[in-house]
Each structure stands twice: as C-alpha cells, then as structure tokens.
Amino acid sequence: MKQFLSASDPEDPRALVKKALVLKANPFQSSAGKNRTLGLVFFNPSLRTRMSTQKAAFNLGMNVMVMNVDKDGWKIEFNDGTVMNGDTQEHIKDAVSVMSQYVDILGVRTFPSLQNKEDDYSEKVISQFTRYSTVPVVSLESATRHPLQSLADLITIEELGIKRPKVVLSWAPHPKILPQAVPNSFLEWIKITDADITLACPQGYELADEFTNGVKIEHDQYHAFEGADIIYAKNWSSYVHYGQKPEVKSDWTITAEKMALTNKGKFMHCLPIRRNVVATDEVVDNSIIYRQAKNREYAAQAVLQEILENL
Ligand code: CP
Description:
Blueprint: H1 13-25, E1 37-42, H2 48-59, E2 63-68, H3 69-72, E3 76-77, E4 90-91, H4 92-102, E5 105-109, H5 117-121, H6 126-132, E6 137-139, H7 147-160, E7 166-171, H8 181-190, E8 196-200, H9 209-212, E9 216-218, H10 221-225, E10 230-234, H11 256-259, E11 266-268, H12 281-285, H13 289-308
Parallel strand pairs: 1-2, 1-5, 3-4, 5-6, 7-8, 7-10, 8-9, 10-11
Helix pairs in contact: 1-7, 1-13, 2-13, 4-6, 7-8, 7-13
Phosphoric acid mono(formamide)ester binds next to helix 2.
GO molecular function: amino acid binding; ornithine carbamoyltransferase activity
Organism: Fulvivirga imtechensis AK7
Binding site for N(2)-succinyl-L-ornithine: 141, 174, 234, 274
C-alpha cells in the first residue's frame, strides 16, 4: 500500500480488517517501524485519531512527531501562483516538501470548508499532500472521508460475528454544521462487506451519489430501525444544500424507545458525541463506542504496518 486515503487504497480491504484483528490479539509481533518516523499533521482538533495513531506507531517501534499546523505552524497558502503579500506565510508545496524529508510516513487531518463543494470534493488540501510528499500519505480524516475510522468500524462489526448484519447509518441532530466525511466513508467501506445497509436521514440530508449508490435510503427513522443489528449514528450537514442545515421538524435523537425497535441492535458512533442531542445517555451508556474507539489503534497499526512493509 502506497497511501491510505480511501477504501480503494488497500489491495484487499477485508484482509486489512483480518490483519487488524490479528494485531489486536498480539500487538507487539512486528518491529517494522524500528528506525522509522511517523509525522502527524493536524489542521483540526482530534483526540482519538491523534492518540490511537501514535499508540499504533509505538506498537510497531516507530518514532512519532506531531504538528498542530493550525496553531503552531506558519499560515499556509493553498493556491498556486498567489502573490503571497497577504496573511499566508508558507506555501503548501514548500511545507509538505520539507515535512516529508523528516518522516517515513506522513499523516494529515484536514476538514472541509463546507463552503465550497468543488474544493472539498476534489480534496483540495490532502491532494496537495499526495502531490508534494516524497513519502506515503495517510488520511487522518479529509474533506470527504475518514478511512481510519471506517476501518475501525468494520473491525468492530466483524468482531460481533453477525452474518449479513442489518446496518442502519442514521442521521442525528447536532447544534453545529458538521462534515460528511464519516458517513461517506462508512458507506464506502461497509459496501465491501456482506452487510445489508440502509441510510436513514431527513429529506435534504442525502449524501453524494458516489457514496449512496446501491444503498437503501429511508426518511422514516422508526421504519429504518426495525430489525436492525447495528445503528451507526452521526450528524452531517446537507450535501445537496451544501454545508447548510435544512430545518428538521421531527425528532431524530436516538432513544432507548427507538433502539427497542431493533434486533437488540448495537449502537455505534465515531465520537466525540453530544450526549442527549445525538443520542440519550441510556443509549450511549449501553453501546459499543469504547470498543470502537479501541479498535482505532489496530486499524492504524494494520495500515502503518502494511505501508512500512512496502517502503
Ligand atoms: N472519531 C475521531 O476521529 O475522533 P477524533 O476527532 O477525536 O480524532
């Protein structure tokens, strides 16, 4: 594997899930990272991605450098040909060319603007990392995808051992305007499994066709939940009315009453979660979210190990 930006990058994504489970059983079996350095560059906040990816690298014997580029770095210019006499201080071309000389793998987190669909869906920022980096690039969540999260989600679902699980990806409320990266990515990855997948969302919150092709879309959350084995909750802003929050009149918060419609369904969320907004305390406290978060470590370790073995 030369990069990890989407489900298309691993040669066999299902084998990567199996590899992560083997690593979970014995995390210290490889020293493929000895004398290698991982760089983690964050344009946006993170708890799980930052800590789990560092832990994964330590399990492999790697050194890790973390850069909060939004706070600690020079202000980056992303456009080519700009006369840089304004407030940007360093061009992305120079920043990435330099950073990639210090590391063997470069991870980057960059959220979408949610203002310019074309820039976001062409991955304006992370594509410049792959363009200018001399080492493999790993997405720590980009404008349209969160592949390390999705891989951890598949590992968690695989551990449940349910044959052809009915999985519902459900929109849920949130006070802020959030990216579509997690749900896009979840759909992209769950499609490679044998799961029966339904997207439940209010009108106006459908995702881009490239992710929903072949996915059932349901606008009645109660109906969608009937018989489900897994409820994966997430908020996202509108793709059609890009980056907006069309009004939703019904209550989409996930409650114990709604979970009772499922087939003793497990509740999943990538975290962080707004309790009693996205889902009630009762739902969150009876969920598998901590196992999901733990599996971030082995998702990252499987990806890093596969890249290291191909350096
Ligand atoms: N789920 C996830 O990516 O968490 P962080 O934003 O805290 O890294």
